[in-house]
Design a protein that fits this description.
The complex is a heterodimer of chains A (319) and B (307).
Chain A: E1 8-12, H1 17-27, E2 31-32, E3 35-37, E4 43-45, E5 55-59, H2 66-82, E6 87-92, H3 111-122, E7 126-130, E8 145-148, H4 151-159, E9 166-170, H5 176-186, E10 190-196, E11 208-212, E12 219-227, H6 231-242, E13 247-255, H7 261-265, E14 272-276, H8 283-286, E15 291-294, H9 297-309, H10 314-317
Helix pairs in contact in A: 1-9, 2-3
Chain B: E1 2-5, H1 10-19, E2 27-31, E3 37-41, E4 49-53, H2 60-76, E5 81-86, H3 105-115, E6 120-124, E7 139-142, H4 145-154, E8 161-165, H5 171-180, E9 186-193, E10 200-207, E11 221-229, H6 233-244, E12 249-257, H7 263-268, E13 274-278, E14 292-295, H8 298-306
Parallel strand pairs in B: 1-4, 4-5, 5-6, 6-7, 8-9, 8-11, 11-12, 12-13, 13-14
Antiparallel strand pairs in B: 2-3, 9-10
Classes of the chains: A alpha/beta (319), B alpha/beta (307).
Chain lengths: 319, 307
Amino acid sequence: MVNKSEDFILLTGRSNVQLAKDVAKLLGQKLHEPISLFSDGEIRVRVPVSLRNMHVFIIQPTAPRVNDSIMELLLMIDAAKRASASEISAIIPYFGYSRQDRKEMPRVPISSSAIANMITNAGATQILTIDIHSQQQQGFVSIPWDNLYGSYALLPMIKSLKLKDLVVASPDKGGMIQATGYAKLLGADGVALVYKERDVAVNDKSGTSAMIGKVKDKNVLLVDDIISTGGTIVNAAVYLKERGAKSVRLAIVHGLFVGDAIEKIKNPVIDEIFVSDTIEQRSEVKNIKKVKIASVAPLLAEAIKRIQTGQSISRDLIL
Amino acid sequence: MKIFSGSSNKLLAEKLAQNLGLELSEIEIHVFPDGERRVKLNDIVVDEETVVVQSTATPVDQNYIELFFIIDALKRSGAKSVTAVMPYLGYQRQDHIFRDGEAVSLQVMIGILESMGVNKVIVLDLHTIKIPEFFHIPIDHLSALPQFAKVIKENGWDSDSILVSPDMGGLRRIKEMSEFLSGMSWIATVKDRNLDTGEITIEKIESSVSNWSMENLKGKRALIVDDMASSGGTLIESAKLLKKSGISEVYAFVTHPIFSKDAPKLLQDSEITKVFVTDSVYVSEEKKFPKLEVLSVAEMIAKEIKD
């Protein structure tokens, strides 16, 4: 007999070993770390156990250093394929380059699509992400692509605060669907939108301009999928405070915290920051008192269990 | 025809463009604070034959991903064809499964290039001659050896010299080099440790000289030929042992200068008189050293593209 329900293998690269360890622990499964490096920086993969007829789950957020993380993922998929794995699930809690998901100007690549296709061509039979930047990306490839939500991890923390007069806000137009979802699940009084005009020709310059909604004397929860340098969301927080918000909290799934993000988020207009561990958090972030980290490990462990045993993951896991 | 360069070896790309009578087409490669790159072609490529130059040496992953994005942009923007000039092909040493459970990294890279619709690949001095067989698209495998042979002749080193391969893997290369130099004698060597004294000497494994004796090395000039140098260790050790065996002078001819941080100093301080490399991999100013001489392969690649 092959393909017994317990016959699955967990692999991880170097991008978020702690998260993979936490998932493995919850599943009571051994975690393999098959990556090493040659002296010239080339990645070497070697899986030390037999994978024949096994369902292989590779946990690897393609987080900074993003290009190395992508390559590690591709090479692990290749190793699993060559070792006759029956199925290869690429578990990519944070999907790098997902903001380059369209031709926003002429003669640019659709980088996210290129990466998704590399993952498929390398031999993945399934992709699982958390809060992919735009859902249309699931259509870049023809293999199953499930997308889960970090809100599964973040919401219990936020609910426990029992905030009254709550308004959920989005720091940009694209985030309104997410904000509306959070508002519904938290029973908020309403939603608000702080919007900006971003000129794509001048790369990553954020500017706050105006807002829709009422925030005066409200406890505001600003939600977003990714925080990078923090420019957009911190500007929005300052703006909301100027508009009379009683408190401002941030709920963000993917915390990149690059550039001078750490300085920016220390701004006292922000009361608390909820972020998940899809990206491994450095101690400089963890040591900030108002930063609360919620783990997506239980969500991933449950998803892996359900994929492995052929149960629905949309039921219960997608809030 | 339009020619674009990735960020790994712009110098070679510029020379290549010059040799083709073209200007490098403008490309923006923006690096975001999180390390993601965004490529933007600032030249129209609709219905154009295009060439992209990228050496996928260290940092290998970044260089590969950048190359893939440039190809994606070229294809989506209507380029008629894409030729990838990859003077150094990263991951080429991972060309088969050495031990169970490994990836064949080179095959992954080739698979991506092919699935993205690259029409042709131009490479230089691959580690093994089998690699072109892995490609399903046309591949031109060029060699710097004729250029090295020219230098040897120009300097009058084609007499009183012997060609040396520092390991067994370079056997094919050394035989080929000998042909370019009207059958210059050669040896392929291996290091040998005397188990009693611990002394390391150089041993011949194969040679063009019948009735070989180590005496043949005495007073000769050694010309070491290899495909790549990273730490420089192999070259340096080999030169030391050759000197010990009575060789008067050592010159090294290495196609790909993938120098590690310490390699330039170690090579400068070694018993090698001069190290010849090509510009297949960009050598930064900090990595240049007095004994180094860089030969350009731009003209040869340009000729291949024109044909």
